[in-house]
Amino acid sequence: MSFKAAAIQMCSGVDPAKNAAAMARLVREAAAEGATYVQTPEMTGMLQRDRAAARAVLADEAHDIIVKTGSELAADLGIHMHVGSTAIALADGKIANRGFLFGPDGRILNRYDKIHMFDVDLDNGESWRESAAYTAGSEARVLSLPFAEMGFAICYDVRFPALFRAQAIAGAEVMTVPAAFTKQTGEAHWEILLRARAIENGVFVIAAAQAGRHEDGRETFGHSMIIDPWGTVLASAGATGEAVIIAEIEPAAVKVAHDKIPNLRNGREFSIEKIAGAVAGGVAA
């Protein structure tokens, strides 16, 4: 059956309580427009580059304000509420970049810890080492919901097609990619990557993003998107500021796409051999 999905675009700051209030306001707006599944961005609860300052306000899952607010919103509005991710303090002193999906009764239906750590050095001097503070996840999941089979990813995960292919083969019809893409990488790759993951797997992709200049000085790309299995952008937001985008999701369109381009069925096992290149006097044997 079809359902209305919303992606919430935010510009999260350094205060989890303020971010929770902003999230609640935008989620209520989405629900008022008929959305029954609502997704927020990566790091909904806080974007803070100062790790000492971040650790000072982090909480474990049982005491986290974003988790508490997400559960309350889901139950109050009778929706499936997807906190794209928030930073959760772990017992060993490290942090989980963890997403939560709450059911209409407020219960946690799924947790997903970001698998791929953003350890990169960019041309503009930005350098990121998520693995220095965060514990990577190791488990991908496909969750059966009343309206669709849903797969989970977070931000940098979108650059790893095998994760999405495995979920598609397991039956996922909707892939979720909440993110806080940098401005530089977003301008170059954001839409291309999202549309590619939708097209190559014949699935819907819902990607709520952080957007604009944040209190900690970073700048994120925005452009939250909802994309259909043929790669068509059904809804998108701008480069900066808060936004609520909504699209009608028809899971039956996934089968239509798979019947047109049955690449999931047509995939074959193969071996790979590395051989020497051309040599003087002819081709290597």
Automatic annotation (TrEMBL):
Q: Name one Pfam family in it.
A: CN_hydrolase
Q: Which GO terms describe its molecular function?
A: hydrolase activity, acting on carbon-nitrogen (but not peptide) bonds, in linear amides
Keyword Nucleotide-binding belongs to the record: no
Q: Where is the CN hydrolase domain?
A: 3-251
Keywords recorded for this protein, A-Z:
Hydrolase
The family note in this entry says: Belongs to the carbon-nitrogen hydrolase superfamily. NIT1/NIT2 family.
This chain belongs to which protein, by name?
Nitrilase
Q: Which organism is it from?
A: Rhizobium chutanense
